[in-house]
Amino acid sequence: MLNGFKDFILRGNVISMAIGLAVGAAFTAVVTGFSNAFITPLIGLATRGTGDFSKAFYMVDGVKFPYGLFVSATIAFLITAAVLYFCVVVPMAKVQDRFAKQEAVDIKAALRDCPRCFSEIPAVASRCGHCTSEVEPDPEALSLAKLPAQQH
Description:
The protein is mainly alpha-helical. It is built from four helices and four strands, in the order H-H-E-E-H-E-E-H.
């Protein structure tokens, strides 16, 4: 039962995406409200503005540029992105790492050249399969393959 729930949570499907979009839209409204109610007035106070920074604009040749709307939207975006990253992405990455299956190490995948005949041999090999000369196994490959070091 819990495995099925885990698979549902970790799998992306249409229903999950639809729920995520609905929650995301509601969350965006909350963050925009927070930004307009608290952050924008604080910026207005810090810049000696009127307190309603979203209505700030400047005029050039009779054309109005409402830069305050852009600043408010940018602040709301940054808050939304930060909260989603720290409250959704980071915890989900930890959950996925916890349930991720360890991949088996292929001990023959790492190759190196034989120092005598220059043929490719596995890094964990202690004897060349081509010229049959004895070679020192790569200690890093031995540790990745969880093999004991060779004794002479």
